[in-house]
Amino acid sequence: MNNKARTLILPASLMVVMALLVATSARAGDKVVYRLKWLRNVSVVGALYAETHGLFEKAGLDVEVKAGGPERDAIRELELGYADFGEASADQVLRARAKGAPVVVIAQLFQVNPLQWMYRPEEMQIDKLADLRGKVIGVTFGGNDETIMNTLLAEAGLGSTDVKLFSVRYDYTPFYRRQVQFWPVYRNAQGPLIAAQLRKEGEGTAFFNPADFGVKFVANCVVTEARTLTERPELVQRFLAALLAGWQEALDPKNQEEAITTLLKYDPDTPRPILEEQLQITRELIQPDAAVAIGTIDEKGWEQTERIMRGQKQLPGVVDLKAILKPVSIRN
Amino acid sequence: MLPRRVFQFFIIYFLFLGVLMALKYSLALSDYVIPSPSGIFHTLIAEYRQYSLATLNTMTVAVIGQILSVVMALVIGISGRQSTWLGSFIKVAAYNFQAYPIVALAPILFILLGDGFLTRLLIAAMICYFPVLLSVLGIMSKPVDDIEHFYRATGRMRWQLEVKIRTFENLTQLTTVIAGSATLAMAGTIVGEFIAANAGIGYNIRIALYQSDLGKILIALFLIGITIAVYQALLESLGAIIKRAWTGR
User: Fold this and answer.
1) Per the CB < 8 Å rule, is A167 touching B206?
2) Which residues contact B45 (CB under 8 A, 6 or more apart)?
3) Averaged over B42-68, what is the pLDDT?
4) Whole-angstrom distance between the N-terminal and C-terminal Cα of chain A?
5) Mean pLDDT across B233-243
6) What is the C-alpha separation between B194 and B185, in angstroms, rounded?
7) Interchain CB contact of A313 with B (< 8 Å)
8) Closest to B216 in 3D by CA, of B43, B87, B37
9) Distance from C-alpha of A20 to C-alpha of A87, rounded to nearest angstrom
């Protein structure tokens, strides 16, 4: 081989290697950003499971799962192009849609809203909404728990003077000190933690679930931009299938150990027994009825949520739910 | 001074709004991401009264907090001006105290003192006292040799006189720092309210964030900005009056 041939072979080989690298990375998967509603904890265990167990890769996707938080808004990120999919609660979706945001719901994660009120059963018995009269009730002013509680009070015919609403934050001291009788918590995440704290003090806990009194307010859903759904239905289908498979597997009692290990990776401070309890409660909230598939959109629940928000003047007018709710059928 | 400050604030605020609108219309963003001008106007009409009262509430706390912090900084600065062991100890204690982030301390304060007036006041004072303290320490530790030499040589120097001389010689610097610290006091109060209080414009911003309502936040920013502009202009005018009274110029 002469020198000229050698000098041609080297760049040619480099080009082949580069072409191969590019081809491999293209096959590695479509890049997708998924913005969670909250921090990496039990409430997003399905996404964490799909991420750590390679379910997204199997679907040919390179998914970056980003933690959420109070200052994160998946719907804004979708519109600004920072995320492709996200989690948002129904009230967020309805507010956004009322202001023209092109967001659509492709699946509903929680069939029962995890936002419930904790109380001490030895102090009171709540059999009907009227039993709330005279109680000190914690609400996050501006949050959806305020909307839910106002609806419950209206249903019970109770006015602002019949109960005392107390502004809550992340600090539970007022509840521990019994200044507040009802404290809003995420039943599956904070509920077991606080209940364990109170158990140590010999106190019992109970949860007041608005759904038990006919008030359904839809919680976390999977959302994307309307354009993504129309222009890339195959991507949406693949993503959702992998995500819901993650939820299915994470909540399957057979995979409990795997799910706990996944959670411990992101949430190492929560004791294992608490995680087990959190996971069990999450199962009941995500799939309370085995006949209803994970991810099913509860249209009646959405209708009620829209009515509640309109009734409380949080929406300027009727929001067309048909344009929002776009269930995606999953091909296996 | 006051009209100029307010006018300058209007320029900044409307430039900011202009940039937002340019983004909104060039990227075809919905009113959810960036509200339209008419949406902002409607929010202003709807929320003006409540937000104005909340801003005044915050401002009251910020002003008292600033007074507290200036007094605190003057006391610590004057006590710590000497290169004695006590002076150095006071400086170290003041610096260390500042090293703890307020965002971390605020929840503890709210747990201990509740979410009322006192906690907000303390947070405002804690945030704005340090820059004032640094200036006071700097000014008070630096001798004005030309003047002080005479009093030292004649044995008439007392600490009160020393403080007076150094204050007089650095009056412009001091008033500028105090006027500037007003912004910090306001920011501190808002941070405190945002974290845990039940009143004030920071609390309202928090509620608006829960409702993903950028229109309300823009109105809150407008009211905060204009209030600070007016307050700073008043402080600067006050500084000019004091200077005139002292120097006769």
Assistant:
1) no
2) none
3) 91
4) 55
5) 83
6) 14
7) no
8) B43
9) 36
Assigned domain for A84 exists? yes
CATH of the domain at B172: 1.10.3720.10
Q: Which residues of B touch A80 (CB under 8 A)?
A: 27, 29, 33
The whole-number pLDDT of residue A47 equals 96
User: How many percent of chain A have pLDDT more than 70?
Assistant: 91
- Selection from A174, A189, A191 nearest residue A137 by Cα: A174
Q: Which domain holds residue A94?
A: 30-112+218-324
Residues of chain A neighbouring B209 (CB-CB closer than 8 A)? 70-71, 142
Residue A193's Cβ-count burial label (10 Å; 0-12, 13-18, 19+) is: middle
Residue B9 counted as domain residue:
no
Give a yes or no: residue B30 inside a domain. Answer: no
Q: Token pair of B114, please?
A: 């509740």
B128-163 pLDDT, tens digit per residue, is 777 788 778 888 878 888 888 888 888 888 888 888
Q: Do B33 and A80 touch (CB under 8 A)?
A: yes
**Alpha-carbon span A113 to B11, nearest angstrom:** 46
Task: Express each pLDDT in A272-320 by its tens digit.
Answer: 999 999 999 999 999 999 999 999 999 999 999 999 889 888 888 899 9
Parent domain of B226: 36-247
Say yes or no: A190 and A42 in one domain.
no
Q: Looking at the domain assignment, is residue B5 inside a domain?
A: no
Which chain A residues have a beta carbon less than 8 Å from that of B207?
141-142
Residues of chain A with pLDDT under 70: 1-28, 331-332
Residues A107 and A119 in one domain: no
Integer Cα distance of A55 and A195 in angstroms: 34
Residue B97 has pLDDT above 80, yes or no: no
- Both A280 and A147 in one domain: the answer is no
Task: Report residue B16's pLDDT band, with 50, 70 and 90 as the boundaries.
Answer: very high
pLDDT at A23: 43
Which positions in chain B touch A99 (Cβ < 8 Å)? 30-32, 35, 39
User: In this predicted structure, what is the pLDDT of residue A22?
Assistant: 42
Q: Which tokens hold the place of A310?
A: 């309109």
Q: Quick check: helix, strand or coil at residue A216?
A: coil
Nearest to A142 among B110, B196, B207 (CB): B207
E strands, chain A, in order: 30-35, 61-66, 85-89, 103-108, 115-119, 136-139, 164-167, 183-186, 206-208, 220-225
Contacts of A139 (CB under 8 A, 6+ apart): A145, A146, A149, A165, A166, A167, A168, A184
Q: What is the pLDDT of residue A285?
A: 96
Number of folded domains in chain A? 2
- Average pLDDT score over residue span B25-32: 93
* pLDDT recorded at residue A100: 93
- Please give the angle made by the CA atoms of A216, A219 and A223, to the nearest 5 degrees: 130
